[in-house]
Specification:
The chain is α/β, with parallel strands linked by helices. The protein is built from 10 helices and 10 strands. Strand 4, helix 2 and strand 5 form a beta-alpha-beta unit. The mean pLDDT is 96.
């Protein structure tokens, strides 16, 4: 597959969710954020991820509105922050997020972290209410352990669609992937390039050289081989397009085995309130 042949239809889907999206964490310059979203959508991306805590929902919404792409074609996700996870706060701040994004509903709404005001029954009851009212199309959780994910699926009246976690070749999340498969929950990988740490891993460099690809493309293709959706953060047009071209890269079994054999383990996101 050549770059010219890549189109939105080139993106595989996990239950209607495009398996390559644009992450927007730390993209707080309003103009730059809106421009990166617009650029990504006009490149072919159809999945955009934001959060209340990113303080850029307004800019993300502006980028979507400015792009020459129908809103109905965009899979849009945001997240409720930990201080807003009591029932009434979930419902109220979710509506605020919709207003900031300039949309009537979002395709996926996540519990950002199971921390602070998170109470499984109370919090997820609010998410189910939003789901029943049509304000969110899908319920998601983020940074949940296998045990927490299992509990969420048991408690929530609406289906748990996805668990968004840090995942990359240096943090392969084997146990969590097995649990998600068992529970029929999709995994979405944030920091899929380990904040650049994958670029200097010899095994990834060797696979990249073999395919005349970038290490970023190799890491994103590896996640896709694992059935995991990746949402790499990118602000420049060059990085947005480089990540997009990962869709043209098909890893063979030897490539996957090489990457699976990496011994090094790194977790980039590890706040004190994390559940692990």
């Amino acid at each position: 597959m050549t770059q010219q042949q890549l189109s939105p239809d080139s993106v595989p889907r996990a239950d209607e969710m495009p398996m390559l999206g644009l992450g927007t964490w730390q993209n707080t310059d309003a103009e730059q954020c809106a421009e990166s979203v617009r650029t990504a959508l006009e490149t072919g991306y159809r999945h955009v991820d934001t959060a209340q805590a990113y303080d850029n929902e307004v800019s993300v919404g502006e980028g979507i509105a400015e792009a020459d792409v129908d809103r109905d074609d965009v899979f849009l996700a945001t997240k409720i922050w930990t201080s807003n996870l009591a029932y009434d706060d979930v419902v109220h701040t979710a509506r605020e997020s919709l207003n900031k994004l300039g949309v009537e509903s979002v395709d996926l709404l996540y519990v950002h972290w199971p921390a602070d005001e998170y109470d499984p029954e109370d919090t997820l009851a609010a998410f189910s209410k939003l789901y029943d009212d049509g304000l969110i199309e899908r319920v998601g959780v983020s940074n949940f352990t296998p045990e927490g994910l299992r509990e969420a699926t048991e408690v929530c009246d609406a289906p748990i669609f996805a668990n968004q976690v840090e995942m990359h070749p240096l943090l392969p999340q084997a146990e969590l992937r097995a649990t998600a498969d068992e529970l029929d929950v999709n995994l979405v990988a944030y920091s899929p390039l380990a904040r650049g740490e994958v670029f200097d891993v010899p095994e990834i460099e060797s696979v990249a050289e073999k395919h005349d690809a970038s290490p970023a493309q190799v890491s994103l293709a590896w996640l896709r081989e694992k059935g995991v959706t990746a949402i790499p953060k990118a602000t420049s047009e060059g990085h947005i397009r480089d990540n997009w071209r990962s869709l043209a890269l098909e890893l063979d079994a030897e490539d996957v085995e090489t990457i699976d054999g990496i011994d090094e383990r790194q977790r980039q996101v590890d706040p004190g309130f994390a559940p692990w």
